[in-house]
User: What shape does this take?
Amino acid sequence: ALALGDLPRARAHLDAAWAAGARDGALAWSRARLYGRLFFEAQERDRLTRGRAQSSPETEALRREAMAMLAAVGDAADRDAVEAEMALYGGRLDDGLAAVERRLAARPASWSAHLTAARLHRAAAADADRRSDYAAATGELGAARVAASAAVEIARSSPDGWLELCRAAFQEAVAEQLTLYRGSSPAAAIARTACASAAEVAPWSTPAAALRAAVVLLELRRLPDLDAVDRLAREAVAELDGLLRGDADEVLVRGLRAYLRQVAVERRMEAAGESEHLPGLLEDRRALAATEPGNAVAWARYCQALAFAAGTALSRVAPDSESRLAALIEALDE
Assistant: This one.
């Protein structure tokens, strides 16, 4: 289940074995890999749905569990592989890359080493971006894409390699957007293909669908044809509709639907036009705010959606939006 990317099933089995008292290194290594992947997915979910730059306490708990399992592996796994993972979760990126290089020197065809290298390079790119060293960030993202591509070539049937390639290319596409406001994006095309491949080998994967939606968001901002923008947003929303299962990922799915609809609305507003996506945007933003009453970001985004309707000709789509906005601002002030 872990190799196929079915993390809920893998978690149920591995946690049950650990709870039953099993403490061998192989089990610890499997749980370390599982919780590492859960951590990265939760971190991505935090960023996409709640606007958090830092991990939530729940996400941080996943990281700590991965670290604890790595410490318990012993001789059950290659030491360089374990050191690379520990360095990744501990923020010691240079140490992690050095361990990966040793691992690849000994085993050039190690799929997991290439995958870890891609994650380390993406983390290094994020660090460089925070320092405003954009040239270094670009170089790290290119290295991440190369490492993820190598992992894909070794194991094309694994969704993890495709997802990591999509993440690396997506981040490159975001960087490209700073200089290419309109037009095609080579990195976005790579990300789109990688997400489609991940969805093909793991059709149940919410992360694959979420990443594809994120790539579509970039395309919505680039496309010059507003009818194409509306059509692409409509298709992406319909794809996400199938993932609304009332589970822990509902906030993620609704958040992405709202982002897609918001960009489509904004593009129409740029041309002083009306958008078919505004009613759905209001619905999603209101539902997200109600789901997390204490989340100020969610309420602010709901206010923004109401302002779109109240302050433009779109107000006839939601004629009570002005009064709803005023009431909401008054409640927030209290």
In short: Residues 230 and 264 are 6 Å apart (CA to CA). The chain is about 75% helix and 0% strand. The mean pLDDT is 83. The first helix runs from residue 7 to 19.
